[in-house]
């Protein structure tokens, strides 16, 4: 599985509507064959930063993603929205999705 984490710092005047701006891109990515998950979170430390966690079943599925029309469209408008170049971690990991955390379980 390909696991990707990306930190996007958005221009202050655009950050409040960031999730709306990426809604169509998010929907299209989630519908791709080979997409395991595609999830946005807002930083608790920086009001203008969003973190994207995404995974694809294989390197081939990731390649299909970056060659898709919706990816190309998003990459064309995102430079106008970001305040700095996004930071990324992209690694291949074993497994097919989320696993249960062994150290923490809910109490009865």
Report the β-strand fraction as a percent range: 25-35%
Q: Summarize model confidence as the mean pLDDT.
A: 97
Biggest sheet strand line-up: 2-3-1-4
Structural class: alpha+beta
Measured as a percent range, the helix fraction is 25-40%
Give the biggest sheet: 4 strands, antiparallel
Rg calc: 15 Å
Poorly predicted runs: none
Morphology call: globular
How many strand units? 4
Give the number of helices: 5
Terminal CA distance = 33 Å
Order of helices and strands: EHHHEEHHE
List the helices and strands and how they pair.
Layout: E1 2-9, H1 12-15, H2 18-21, H3 23-30, E2 35-42, E3 49-56, H4 59-66, H5 69-77, E4 87-92
Antiparallel strand pairs: 1-3, 1-4, 2-3
Write a compact overview of the structure shown.
With 108 residues, the chain is of the alpha+beta class. The protein contains five helices and four strands, in the order βαααββααβ.
């Amino acid at each position: 599985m390909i696991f990707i984490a990306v930190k996007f710092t958005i221009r202050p005047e655009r950050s409040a509507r960031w999730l709306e701006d990426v809604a169509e891109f998010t929907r299209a990515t989630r519908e791709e064959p080979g997409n395991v998950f595609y999830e946005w979170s807002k930083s608790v430390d920086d009001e203008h930063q969003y973190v994207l966690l995404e995974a694809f079943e294989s390197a081939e599925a990731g390649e299909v993603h970056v060659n898709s029309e919706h990816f190309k469209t998003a990459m064309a408008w995102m430079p106008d929205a970001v305040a700095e170049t996004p930071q990324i971690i992209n690694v291949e990991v074993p497994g097919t999705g989320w696993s249960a955390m062994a150290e923490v379980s809910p109490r009865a």
